[in-house]
């Protein structure tokens, strides 16, 4: 399963349901987009290190941006940017999940529901 950035934020806020959700998955992935968003949200070097340590300790694999992911994300923006307000970061995360045939776990159903070929698992905190 690939996890959206918001799931990590719920864990950081102490949401045990989000933590149990992550613990329950054998294979854990995140998009390089989510990785960058998590680091960008850190307020200092200590939080950077805590984020990287968490990802390492729980065996997350960061999936890189590829030409196919970039192309698919651009198609998603063309299709859903104007009609549903899809943003570039979410398009990259959705494209990463789709290209790898993974279910995207997110609490932001509204952001991803329009994308027909994307399989999601909606987290409700």
- Strand segment tally: 5
Radius of gyration using CA atoms only: 14 Å
The termini sit apart by 18 Å
Note the main sheet: 3 strands, parallel
- What series of H and E elements makes up the topology? EHHEHHEHHEHE
Descriptive terms for the model:
Rossmann fold; 3-stranded parallel beta sheet; two-stranded parallel sheet
In words, what does this structure look like?
The structure is a single chain. The relative contact order is 0.20. The protein has helices at residues 5-12, 16-23, 32-41, 45-57, 67-84, 88-99, 109-112; strands at 2-3, 28-31, 60-63, 104-106, 120-122. Helix content is 58%, strand content 13%. The protein has 125 residues and is an alpha/beta fold. Helix 1 packs across helix 2 (16-23). The model has no long low-confidence stretch (mean pLDDT 96). Strand 4 (104-106), helix 7 and strand 5 form a beta-alpha-beta unit.
């Amino acid at each position: 399963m690939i996890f959206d950035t918001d799931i990590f934020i719920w864990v950081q806020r102490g949401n045990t349901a989000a933590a149990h959700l992550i613990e329950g998955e054998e294979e854990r992935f995140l998009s390089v987009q989510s990785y960058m968003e998590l680091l960008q949200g850190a307020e200092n070097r200590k939080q950077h290190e805590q984020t990287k340590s968490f990802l390492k300790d729980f065996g997350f694999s960061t999936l890189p941006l590829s030409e196919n992911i970039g192309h698919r994300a651009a198609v998603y923006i063309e299709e859903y940017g104007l009609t549903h307000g899809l943003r570039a970061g979410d398009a990259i995360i959705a494209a990463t999940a789709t290209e790898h045939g993974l279910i995207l776990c997110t609490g932001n159903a509204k952001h991803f529901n329009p994308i027909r070929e994307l399989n999601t698992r909606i987290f409700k905190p």
